[in-house]
Design a protein that fits this description.
mainly beta; Jelly Rolls; Immunoglobulin-like; 3 domains; binds calcium ion
Length: 442
């Protein structure tokens, strides 16, 4: 094979290395013969697009190597390890999968299966292999194609995702030998018996390379990204969520929610990066204003290969050093005045911070957080009303008949209904007296 002859000139010891290569060739033959099972009732070939091999079961799942290296699954991925060697010798290793042409998802007719590219992640221990290639072998033609365009990181433990297209013209696929044509490449893609990653040890140091998420990928495959938008402030409006295809801005597929909650961006084309971000369009102008709540997924960007869940976004809003949000300051204060947590600017008995939490006007002494009490028309219950300006606020009502005994909650989770929230206490039909307290729950 042409790949072997590539290494012969580099041999320090022709005889020893020659023997090793002979041994390897024999093992490769035994391996192939011992693994392929062809039978008349199993002629269907199963090359399957978009079924990633994740190795999360701790097994090798039919992937194996030839000689020199060892292959194991230390932690939900495949690891190829080379031992330390005393002399430099060419050690060309191959990790191959889908050897079973009658059933493996990595063998068969790639063209009929719509496979357009091959995806996998690779991690090193900080060393680079001398050679690393993706290889495809067709038993029918005896041809082996290889692609040397694999990217990896020099940083130990850093996974790099590779996306190798099955694009012969202008691509990087090479035949091990002369005379390749585009037609040969297409013919072999219709009958792939083996796919593998071939690695040559670099120098004599022990080294290991890890592979995960190996996938034959089909064209135009879409998946979804799901998550939850959370916001603890008091602005309201439609929440716009975008799967952005750039590191900044808001271009991309988007959706809206009437309030923070669970979202799903569906039909996003795979093998792309998405930056998930969201904001509340409080002034309904369609764009993010600097004082509006916004946020993004902490693990942006999402490299979309399979459905993504829990891409959660926490929205926050600009605020001043005291914690007053900019939108609230802009609403109630002039440029030459600022709220202070402990100051009661309008002198109504409630400080500015509590007016912010209660949703009352800190510049208007008539706007206070107080209960207006009345009775129902049948006088069988007591109706409480209070000013509330935040749609996403919740309240609790507490009651006592004896101020010496303290208040106990009689109702939690009362949803605000701006500009005024109501509660009817139908259990207040004894002799009383009844004293009430309203608490803001968020
Ligand atoms: Ca895995
Ligand atoms: Ca806006
Ligand atoms: Ca006040
Ligand atoms: Ca006030």
């Amino acid at each position: 094979m042409g790949v072997r002859s590539l290494f012969i000139p580099t041999m320090g010891n022709m005889k020893l290395s020659g023997t090793k290569l002979e041994l390897k060739a024999e093992l490769a033959v035994i391996f192939i013969l011992g693994t392929i099972r062809l039978s008349v009732d199993q002629v269907a070939i199963a090359a399957s697009a978009n079924s990633p091999e994740l190795w999360n079961n701790g097994q090798l799942n039919g992937w194996t190597n030839e000689i020199f290296s060892t292959v194991d699954n230390p932690d939900t991925y495949l690891r190829i390890s080379f031992p330390k060697q005393s002399i430099i010798m060419p050690s060309e290793e191959e990790v191959v999968g889908g050897l079973d042409a009658s059933g493996g998802i990595f063998s068969g007719d790639y063209l009929s299966a719509g496979i357009s590219n091959i995806l996998f992640s690779i991690m090193t221990d900080g060393q680079r292999p001398k050679i690393i290639r993706l290889v495809l072998y067709s038993a029918a033609s005896g041809r082996e194609w290889s692609n040397a365009g694999i990217q990896l990181s020099d940083e130990a433990g850093q996974w790099i995702t590779n996306n190798i297209t099955l694009d012969y013209p202008g691509g990087t696929w090479k035949l091990a030998g002369p005379g390749a044509t585009h037609e040969d490449f297409l013919a072999d893609l219709k009958s792939v018996d083996r796919i593998g990653v071939r690695i040559q040890q670099n120098g004599t140091n022990a080294q290991s390379y890890c592979i995960d998420n190996f996938c034959l990928h089909g064209p135009n495959v879409c998946e979804s990204i799901k998550g939850k938008v959370t916001y603890t402030g008091f602005q309201s409006g439609n929440v716009k969520i975008v799967g952005c295809n750039k590191p900044d801005g808001w271009a991309g597929q988007s959706m809206e929610l009437p309030q923070p909650g669970n979202y799903e961006l569906s039909n996003l084309p795979t093998v792309s990066n998405y930056w998930i971000r969201a904001f509340i369009d409080a002034n309904t102008n369609g764009i993010l204003d600097e004082w509006e709540p916004a946020g993004e997924y902490v693990n942006n960007p999402v490299k979309l290969m399979a459905p993504v869940e829990n891409a959660d976004v926490l929205l926050s809003e600009p605020s001043n050093a005291e914690g007053f949000p900019v939108w609230w300051i802009n609403k109630y204060f002039d440029t030459d005045m600022v709220p202070l947590k402990t100051a009661d600017t309008d002198g109504d008995g409630m400080n500015d911070w509590n007016e912010y939490i209660a949703g009352t006007d800190p510049r208007n002494c008539a706007s206070v957080f107080k209960i207006n009490m009345g009775t129902s028309h049948l006088k069988s219950s007591i109706v409480l009303k209070w000013v509330s300006n935040y749609a996403n606020q919740m309240f609790a009502v507490l009651r006592t008949s004896n101020l010496m005994e303290g208040f106990v909650p009689i109702q939690n989770g009362i949803q605000a209904t701006p500009p005024e929230t109501f509660f009817e206490d139908t259990t207040a039909n004894g002799t009383g007296p009844y004293y009430y307290k309203i608490q803001v729950e968020q």
